[in-house]
Write a structure and sequence with these properties.
Length: 125
C-alpha cells in the first residue's frame, strides 16, 4: 500500500507529495526548496546542494539513509552544471554510487531553478 512520507519540507501549492513509499520503495523528487516555501534560484551550486540536502532529509524521514538511494535521474537546464553536480554529488554519496542519469532540458516547472532530481530508494520494510 502506498503511503505519504512526511518530510518536514513545506508544501508548495502543487497536487503532488514530496515523497511516497510502497513495499520499501521510496519515490521522491528533490528540488531546491527552502524551508520558508520559496525556491533557491541563485547559482547552480547553491541549488544543487540544497536539492541534495532535501533528498537526504526525505530519505531519513522515510526511515532510511542516503546509501539506500539506488537510482537517480537528474534534470539540469545547462550542461555546464554537470561538473558542479558531480562535485556536490560526491559530498553526499560515497561508493558504491547509485545509478544515475542526467538529462539536459530547456526548463524545469519552477522558473529559475536549474535542477530537479527524481529518486528511487529501497528501504528495508
Amino acid at each position: 500500500m502506498k503511503r505519504v512520507v512526511h518530510t518536514g519540507l513545506p508544501e508548495f501549492g502543487r497536487p503532488t507529495e514530496h515523497a511516497v513509499m510502497a513495499d520499501g520503495h521510496l519515490r521522491t523528487t528533490a528540488v531546491p526548496l527552502k524551508m520558508d516555501g520559496t525556491f533557491e534560484t541563485g547559482d547552480a551550486r547553491s541549488q544543487i546542494a540544497l536539492a541534495l540536502e532535501n533528498l537526504e532529509r526525505t530519505v531519513k524521514a522515510a526511515g532510511g539513509e542516503i546509501t539506500d538511494v539506488i537510482q537517480a535521474l537528474c534534470f539540469l537546464t545547462n550542461a555546464d552544471h554537470v561538473s558542479v553536480l558531480n562535485e556536490e554529488w560526491t559530498k553526499q554519496f560515497k561508493p558504491p554510487y547509485p545509478n544515475r542519469g542526467i538529462l539536459i532540458v530547456n526548463a524545469i516547472g519552477v522558473p529559475g531553478i536549474v535542477i530537479l532530481i527524481q529518486v528511487h530508494a529501497y528501504i528495508e520494510p
